Amino acid sequence: MGPYIYTVFAFVFGALIGSFLNVIRYRLPRKRGFVSGRSKCPGCGHQIAWYDNIPLVSFLILGGRCRSCGTSISWEYFITEIATGLTFVLIWLKFPPGEAVAYFVFASILIACAGIDYDFRIIPDKLTIPGTLIGIIFSVTLLGGRSPGNPLLDSVIGMVVGGGTLLAVSLLYRLIRKAEGMGGGDIKLMAMVGAFMGYKLALLTIFIASVGGAVVGLFLSRRAKEGMRAALPFGVFLAPAALICLLWGEDLISAYLTLLK
What we know:
There is one protein chain. Helices cover about 70% and strands about 0% of the residues. The chain has nine helices and no strands. It starts with a helix and ends with a helix. By secondary structure, the chain is mostly helical. The chain has a domain at about 135-260. α7 (about 185-195) runs antiparallel to α8 (about 200-225) and α7 crosses α9. It has helices spanning about 1-25, 55-60, 75-95, 95-120, 125-140, 150-175, 185-195, 200-225, 235-260. The radius of gyration is 20 Å and the shape is globular.
């Protein structure tokens, strides 16, 4: 019974964090403080009571609507909470407790960045720059025993390779197409990914995100009849790709090397 309790706790804790990430997603791009202040309905401005703000439960009880005015609340908030909870469970089951705590922070920043990029086509420096510093600090503390060698050096190299690869792609695209092809937010996001996971998984993240982005972009561009000019927020693909690599990246690399042999 004991291990299951910890797994349930990881999900509940993740859902609570997901609720807070929804606050960040809504307030940070609008330059509002997200540390203090009660949540309000975006429709009527009514302050949301605590019992209407319980992750997952309140949304289902209220049918995704404000109790006061009946304004519809986006399912994206519910999805963020359940996705964060499930991600925390997978991390908890995959890593030792110390590493799991570090990756809880990492996953939370990724999910917040993906949500904001989806809504506003931006990835705030207020998330990625502190996230990169946290990744470097964790590399010699909670993640210090992750791999042999110099963990600090591995983290710094990962940061440089992760961000530098997208920077090189951006400069090359600008040179060839005479237009912006990669936002600075994506570059800083990948610097953070590299700081947490190292250069190998950072490169794999870029590859998986590129494949996913190409497939979805082709589908959407054909529907919109815009050709390949359809703009996509790349952070929406980078964030889940990074989580895939965090959980299964080493296995994917090992499987690929086995196929080569």
